[in-house]
Hints:
Strand content: 15-25%
Helix content: 25-40%
CATH architecture of the largest domain: 3-Layer(bba) Sandwich
Structural class: alpha/beta
CATH topology of the largest domain: FAD/NAD(P)-binding domain
CATH class of the largest domain: Alpha Beta
CATH superfamily of the largest domain: FAD/NAD(P)-binding domain
Number of strands: 23
Low-confidence stretches: 450-458
Number of helices: 15
Distance between the termini: 34 Å
Shape: globular
Largest sheet: 7 strands, mixed
Strand order of the largest sheet: 6-5-15-16-17-14-18
Amino acid sequence: MGNYDVVIVGARCAGSPLAIQLARAGLSVAVVDKDPFPSDTQSTHFFQTEGLVSLARLGVMDTLRGTGAPFIERANGRIDNLMMDAPWPTRPGDVGGAMCVRRPVLDTILVEAAQEAGAEVRTETRVVSVIKDAGRMAGVRVAGVRVATATNGESDLRAPLVVGADGRGSIVGRQAGARMYNLTANERFGYWGYYEGASIPLPAAGYLHRFGEEFFIGAPTDAGLFMVIVLPPLDRLSSFRADPDRSFDEHVAKDEMLADIVAKARRVEPLHKMLRWTGYFRESSGPGWVLVGDAGHFKDPAPAQGISDALRQVDRLAPAIVDGLGRGQVVLDEALHAWWRWRDDDAYEMHWFAEDFGRAGPFPALAGEMTRRLYEDGRFAEFVDILNHRVRPSQLLKPGPAFAATGRLLRGGQPPRRQVFRELGDVMRREIQHRRLKRHPAYRSEETLGRDAEPVEA
């Protein structure tokens, strides 16, 4: 049996950064993860400016730069025939614009940094169950986890706080009884691959392209590789899976810019895939437990927010834990509940923005017209700052610009008036619905989700 101040389940981009901060604050921390490291996980690998700031505070930027992953200095966007290219927006004190690092590399760096900070990291260690104790106050508290390894069997790790940083299938969340709410369903699926010897333009850019039914993400990553993600609509899934390599190459060929970058390159490693997912919020704190990263909130991966979300959440969670543990269980529970409410407010607009961004079908003409005007007015950096999590979608995509864009489309005669009014009506209806769901969340038990509750293995 081991006794700690905090036990963290999950050692990737939420768990290890939290362990680093807590260990540096003098807490005894155990981190357990079922996987060995290095190992892979489903991810866009992309983290933006705020994520880089967090990683710099953790002291791992020199190591990340040593992987060969460049800072992404430009944003290259496409919406149908509108091509956009601009410097990636940064502010004084920022480390860089963005970066893309494969998860076996990034997560291993973070795990090693957690060990160096003084956390006890146990990999290839499976959580069998969450330990619950009857407290002196009403209710039951989470008091640790029972773990198992192939060599040492089962043992208990006890702590006043258990952190679930264990992703979408979080055992901590399930066994704590955390309900999901405000769910979304994917309308696309993803395959991604890496190319060696690509003709990568400099300065390095991140590519986000939507045209017709197609959706592509591209970026240079570590080891001199270039990553391409294709996100076709779900109605192509059966035909794509019949011959993934051929289908992937055919899809990449549709994007002339990305196809030119990888034309003389060799695709390495088998393709990776993410086929179905459910976006959600989970109840994220209770007596003796808290959920961080994908364990507590997961959104459509289209805008590539997961890593930066996790890092930003950790930056707010760590001081709440340190302060709360020093002042007793009641204060700790209150601090974690307040953090959960901050997390929801921080993530709420981007949750719905991601759902809209990842929808199947052509990019809405109304949204495209609003983006075109921003670009022509020299304000494309403000749109990219939505991805940086420095501008809320509602600050930019306001009713006034939406009505103005509607007027321009109607005067231009394309697309048909009926489509323009339908899109405007859809925007207004969704906004009303989202405001209602913020006040009155729609809960759904995890047991009813079936296979969508768990990640599909790559």
